[in-house]
């Protein structure tokens, strides 16, 4: 199990005055959050696509004749 907690790491770094470590922890926390949201959105889109009925094109069945 991963015990990493970027938010806690950021707070600890700020308390110590370590701005560089705080920035790294902030970026890590933000990256984790964005990654999770993107994964959730991908799953939603994929399930929507798979649930749709195939589109039928009624115009494809009609033949087009050109009169000379």
Fold and architecture overview:
The chain has two helices and no strands. The chain has 68 residues and is mostly helical. The chain has a domain at 6-49. Helix 1 packs antiparallel against helix 2 (19-51). 3% of the residues are buried. The model has no long low-confidence stretch (mean pLDDT 83).
Task: Using brief descriptors, characterize the structure shown.
68 residues, mainly alpha, rod-shaped
Coarse morphology: rod-shaped
Structural class: mainly alpha
Radius of gyration: 26 Å
Query: Which stretches of 5+ consecutive residues score pLDDT under 50?
Result: none
Number of strands: 0
Helix and strand string, N-terminal first? HH
Number of DSSP helical runs:
2
Helical coverage, percent range: 55-70%
The N- and C-terminal alpha carbons lie at a distance of: 76 Å
Q: Percent of residues in beta strands? A: under 5%
Chain-averaged pLDDT: 83
Biggest beta sheet attributes? none
